[in-house]
Structure formats: C-alpha cells, structure tokens
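U., I forgot to send this yesterday:
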Amino acid sequence: MPTFLSLVAASAPAAGSVTVSIPTDRDAIVATPHKQNNDGSWGYGWIRKTTRSLIGFNIAPLQGRIVEKAEIKLYVADHQFTEEGTIIVAHPWEPSQQVPDWEEGSNLFNSFAYCKTGEYMVAAQRYPTEAENPDPMSRRGATWKCSVDPDYLTPGGDQDTNCPPGTPARWNPIVPPERQRGMHDGFRANIDARTMISPDPQNITIERPELQDMGCNESIECIKDENPTKPRPSTVDDCWRSVTINVTNDVQEALAIPGYVRPSWLIKRRHEFRRGAVHWFSREGAHCNKGPGGETGLFRLFGDRGKDSSALQPVLVVQLAGTTPVVIPTPAAHCNAYD
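Result:
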C-alpha cells in the first residue's frame, strides 16, 4: 500500500499558490557503448557524450489544478561542467507516437559508490543470466535500442531479435549531421520554440562551475551538521548543488490530454560531442543505500541526525494556483537490484 505525503517545497510560493514536489517514479540511463544493457536501477542519472537519461513522474494528483510553473530538479553528485557552459536539454515524451512508452527496468550499470569510497558503497547484484532470472516480466526495460526490450538478458545480446528494426519499440536513433546523435523516437526532437519562451527558457539550462560547488566529502561534512554555531540544521539544498529545468509547458500540455498522467523526458547534452558531463542522484541512489545494520538511506549519517536521504531524489517541483494542499503519493521503493 503506497504511503501518501503532502510535500511542500521550502521556497515560499507566490501569493495565492501552493508548491508541491513530486518524486520521480521511474528513471534510467541508456548508453551507446552498452546498447542492450538496461540500467533502470543504478544510483545515478548520467549524461555525457555516449549516455542519456530518462525520467518520468506521475502527475495524476495535479488533475483539475492550474499549473503556474513546473521544474525538474536534480541533485548533483559530481560534474564536469565547462566554463563556457554545458547545455542540458529535456525532450518531452509525445504520447501520440506509435512507440510504446519506455519501462524503467531493474538492472544496473554497476555498484553504487558515493565519493568512490567503500564506506558509502552499496554492492549491486551482477547482471543475472536468463537461467537465474526466469521470469520474463522482470527482464523488460529500456535500452539504447529499445523503449521496451522484452528480454534484455537474451543470450548473446541479440536485440535485432528482441525488438528488430521496423518494430514500434525500436527507437534506436540515427546519427544525423552536426555530429549529434539522433533523437530517440517517441520524444519531441525540436524544442527550439520552447527554449525561447519568455520570461524563462523552457526545456533547457546552461550549467557552469560555481565557486560554491562542493566536492562529495565537503557535502558529507556539510550534512553532518557538526558545527554547533550554525543557526539551523543543514538541508540537502545547503550541501548539494541542484540543476533545474523548466518544463512548465510540457506539464500543462500533459494535463490537457485526457488520461495522460505519466509524462517523461529524455535528458541529454545539447551538443553531445562537446565536453561536460554530470551525475545526479537517481531515486535508487537516494533510497537504496544501506548501512551495515541494514538501515536504509543514502548515508548512515542521515539517519543518525533524523534526516531523510530521499530528499536527494529527483523531483518535479510544481507551483499551482490556489492554496488547497495536494496529497502526493510516495512511489514504491525500487531496490530489488540491491537486496
């Protein structure tokens, strides 16, 4: 049975409005070097030259409300943003497409280790064989080539059999000019009209290094809160940088489509063959890390101080007209790859 919470953002909403944070209920990465691999359970979202991220939210609780602003918010674990600016774009899913909606899947790239130290490492299961994992429904998920690979553990990695070219689930992008990797079918390719909307650009952000950027060890010391002179306890917003992407129009359009309550986005670098990369905490990275006693949470130090590491998970922050509270369901944990 799902838990229900009313989540209100820390920032003050505009007069006559309320702001809610919706946790992601699915996220994954897809990568060209591992075209068959499903990575729906890894502890990070990731974008670089060869890697893109998928993220989706359940906006059913917003039905009937007026959306004034909506932003995807991602907490950065580490980055290599460039001084000239790393341009990050979010391409919305188009539900009218023939491509079946992508599924998260439960496999993962590798073990999840924050700060690259054993103290904060969670050993992940290795990719099982088909014989070890006989349930075909547990072997479905998004890969670089397929929105839904029906069995990503097929011996030999033969995706031309699983979702052959010409079938709806085959969304493998074709490399166009400008040395860019093509768009995965099902997502809106042209978002230029979105990026120019005033007063805030839509579907795009330009990220550069900032003086206040913390390394992972600094973030850990920050959240430990061991300075007795601090006026208030540290929060994740004090200790980790975040990236926000304005997707207001996408959310408004999604709510206008009857029955469409699970919008999603493909997040990538705009210029994929230029420099700049970033890891952010996935929902598994925020929820599935366990201490030696089995306690859940990204770090044991969170629980020691009465804090909740799930605050580092990706969220859709939405400002709604009116002051009536909205009850947001908490998605079920997705930690089976770590158990």
